[in-house]
Amino acid sequence: MEIQILGGGGEVGRMAVLVKGSSHAFLMDYGVNFDDEGHPVFPLHVRPRDLTAVMLSHSHLDHCGALPSLYVSSPPPLYATKLTTELAELMFKDAIKLSGYYLPYEDDEVRNALRRVVPVGYGDTVEFGGDRATFINAGHVPGSMMTYLEVDGRGLVFTGDFNLSESNLLNGADVTRLPRDLDYVVMEATYTSGNHPPKEELDKSFIEAVKTSLEEGGSVLIPSFTIGRAQEILMTLVRNNVVDVPIVVDGLARMANQIIAKHPQFLRDPDLYGKAMKASVEVLGNYYRRQVMRDQAVIIAPAGMLKGGASLYYFKRLARDKRNAVILPSFQAPDTPGFELLSRGAVRIGNEEIRVNAKVYWFDFSAHSGLRELVKFIDYFSSTTKVILVHTEPLSSLKFAQALGRELYVTKVSGERIIE
Description:
InterPro entries: Beta_Casp, MBL, Metallo-B-lactamas, RibonucZ/Hydroxyglut_hydro, RMMBL. Keywords: Hydrolase. GO terms for molecular function: hydrolase activity; RNA endonuclease activity. Residues 230-341 form the Beta-Casp domain. By secondary structure, the protein is α/β, with parallel strands linked by helices. The chain folds into 2 domains: 2-194 and 367-419, Metallo-beta-lactamase, Chain A, CATH 3.60.15; 199-362, Rossmann fold (3-Layer(aba) Sandwich). The chain contains 12 helices and 24 strands. It has a 7-stranded mixed β-sheet with strand order 8-7-6-3-2-1-24. Strands 9-10-11-12-13-22-23 form a 7-stranded mixed β-sheet. It is globular and about 65 Å long.
């Protein structure tokens, strides 16, 4: 078996792993990163005609954003859940809208990719002439999956992004469906440096921050990732009865909400999700955005790091009033407006410097496993299982491996090959 890290080696994002046996080759994800100027950065090249199949773990662009480039000729079958497929289509179209000049694909390639989709569900197994793949709930975002490959008599799990802990939105990853005596585990290790706070404490602090601003007569802006985070925030608000003012959902998040609603089997509590959908108000354009600004509201809108999108529209109008609040519920990458807001209390947008008088909060809502869960996941497998860490910074992962006292393979750059 040969494992080649095409992307995600020594970096977070741009995930792509190629697994080759004697007869078949399987590609796990094919995502993008973005450079400082917002231009997409792709994984290493792979020839589509050499691929037996592609498995897509979930619909975030850092795992799927380069996939359509494989569907120009000799297109391989693409295995994903039906929900992941529909959400990925939403993300592909948005990527073309925002970065189309720099992408090696257009709408035709997206359509070609979608035509090659073979929908799978959790627990399904697909045969490939002696090799096979089984798909397991990853607990990351709605529709996300791990892939368990059996190739030439060896077993490998590719986790994609995963979360062992349950949330309001999802059950945790279904690890017990995996064998313990695997040969390889290729796992994301984004958060090797620390634990996430207990869910109950996190929700309580978040709700208190929201209510404080509402009681002072202000509005609350919550910039959120389109898939996963926006839905988790909405359900958390409704579960805690924060419904005295409109809960507004804007941008791509409202479209993602609708797609997810069609697939309740992927949700931990479909009834609560339905209640949250009914409690929210969808914004369809600038006219309705102006109406929203006339009264108090809780606003959920992409982009999660204030880097464009509907959230920036609201931020410009809410930031200067001390009664309002801006709540960042996600990781904020350096060189983004969200990071700038947290670090210095002001944001430069174009030529305009916006001094923020609104209350600013950050909460660690994460759809990834933290340190405690990563250790638990590794300990589930046999001591002879070779664990390969991807989708992580090398320094923190090396420290993690040393502290764990177990031999782990920490990828340092994309392009590494592991051959056994």
